[in-house]
Amino acid sequence: MNAGSTALIVLGLFFVGGIISFVKQGMPKGLIVLVSLGSVACLVLGFMRLEVGS
Fold first, then answer.
1. Which domain holds residue 31?
2. Can you give the pTM of this predicted structure?
3. DSSP readout, 1-54?
4. d(C-alpha 41, C-alpha 6), whole Å
5. Does residue 51 fall inside a structural domain?
6. pLDDT at residue 54, as a whole number
7. Nearest Cα to 9, choosing from 37, 35, 48, 36?
8. Each residue of 10-54: pLDDT tens digit?
């Protein structure tokens, strides 16, 4: 696991926490969708960058 993949995974998980908080606060759905897309993108890129077997 390198620093880049770790940073992307941590950022994605941070965004997931933000999504949960925004839903509880009743924020607009558009904002929640935007943060959700960012979270999914960060998590997918983080897991794709993992160097398996190294």
1. 3-43
2. 0.85
3. --HHHHHHHHHHHHHHHHHHHHHHHT--HHHHHHHHHHHHHHHHHHHHT--TT-
4. 14
5. no
6. 54
7. 48
8. 999 999 999 999 999 999 999 999 999 999 999 999 999 887 655
What's the number of CA atoms in the CB half-sphere (13 Å) around residue 16? 10
In one-letter notation, the amino acid at residue 31 is L
- Domains identified in the chain, total number: 1
**Any idea of the CA torsion for 42, 45, 52, 3, to the nearest 10 degrees?**
-60
Tokens of 50: 């993992």
Q: Which two tokens stand for residue 22?
A: 């925004």
